[in-house]
């Protein structure tokens, strides 16, 4: 029996390895496809003036399928002054994450302009735009490699000390240090399994290491437990200090301190202002806020006998 078990078990290992490699390849091709959708303009120069990187969207119109597809953004204009935070809220599908993808230049827009420090992102090198921006995404993709590799991905060539100090700042160091091989522990299916919150902390550590002047936080839709959520929010606020930041928010508690809040609906900005201004307006934001204060509806009371 054992003679049969060992080869079968071995086959299982090979199968998982191949499956994982295919998953990684698939992710890589998805990214490469996106790369191919935009190209550097002839003679494009790198972005300059990154000490004061104001971000501006001016009349942005966008459809994922430019040949007659649905228009997802219908003339969006806003500014994130250098070092400030702008938050975007609105129902699912309203176009919030699309703003982030366009700023990173995964796609080119059909009308309008997106500028960083006064330079249109279409006119400068794609690599310099991506170098200037750090993204903490909803679902962090971790490579089937060591924790150290996954953090250093933010800045290849970073030293062990730099990796550890980024992990400490993202409050994931103690967790990593307690794993059997510490930073050399492999993550993924056959290694260290990370929760949603832990993965996000790895993404924060990556971003801290990259230290870009512009940040995008795409908040997780899946609810973390509230202690974890508060801790991550505090860490994100620390990272965002003095950086030009776009927050795609799914919970209003994250946006209260933003320089400006944009309320989106079906590709348009329907309200905008600070938290206090939007509450005073008594419109969509104010009703979203009061709904969120009430919390989830209570379970119906048991019928009286
Ligand atoms: P959520 O809060 O659920 O993350 P969102 O406001 O961020 O939603 P987006 O992800 O920006 O919404 O999507 C806006 C619209 O664009 C949706 O209707 C979505 O179906 C569509 N969309 C998103 N990505 C693509 C894509 N790659 N190709 C075609 N349509 C897309």
Automatic annotation (TrEMBL):
Shown segment, full-protein numbering: 317 to 621 of 621
Subcellular location: Cell membrane
Organism name: Acidovorax benzenivorans
Domain ABC transporter per the UniProt entry, residue ranges: 55-291
Protein known as: ABC transporter ATP-binding protein/permease
Transmembrane spans: 1-15
Lineage: Bacteria, Pseudomonadati, Pseudomonadota, Betaproteobacteria, Burkholderiales
């Amino acid at each position: 029996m054992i003679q049969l078990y060992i080869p079968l078990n071995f086959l299982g290992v090979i199968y998982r390895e191949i499956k994982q490699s295919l998953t990684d390849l698939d992710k890589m091709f998805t990214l490469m496809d996106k790369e191919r959708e935009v190209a550097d303009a002839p003679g494009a120069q790198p972005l300059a003036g990154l000490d004061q990187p104001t971000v501006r969207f001016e009349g942005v119109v966008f459809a994922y399928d430019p040949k007659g597809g649905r228009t997802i953004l219908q003339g969006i204009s806003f500014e994130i002054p250098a070092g400030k935070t702008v938050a975007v809220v609105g129902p699912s599908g309203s176009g919030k994450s699309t703003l982030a993808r366009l700023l990173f230049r995964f796609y080119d827009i059909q009308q309008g302009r997106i500028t960083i420090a006064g330079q249109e992102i279409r006119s400068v090198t794609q690599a310099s735009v991506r170098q200037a921006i750090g993204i903490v995404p909803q679902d962090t993709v971790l490579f089937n490699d060591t924790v150290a590799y996954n953090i250093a991905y933010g800045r290849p060539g970073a030293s062990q000390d730099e990796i550890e100090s980024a992990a400490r700042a993202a409050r994931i160091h103690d967790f990593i240090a307690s794993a059997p091989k510490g930073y050399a522990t492999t993550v993924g299916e056959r290694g260290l399994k990370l929760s949603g919150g832990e993965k996000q902390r790895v993404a924060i550590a990556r971003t801290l290491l990259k230290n870009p002047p512009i940040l995008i936080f795409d908040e997780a839709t899946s609810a973390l437990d509230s202690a974890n959520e508060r801790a991550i929010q505090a860490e994100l606020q620390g990272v965002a200090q003095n950086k030009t930041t776009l927050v795609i928010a799914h919970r209003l508690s994250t946006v209260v301190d933003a320089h400006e809040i944009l309320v989106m609906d079906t590709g348009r900005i329907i309200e905008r202002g600070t938290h206090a201004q939007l509450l005073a307006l008594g419109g969509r934001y104010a009703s979203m806020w009061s709904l969120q204060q009430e919390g989830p509806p209570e379970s119906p009371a048991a019928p009286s006998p």
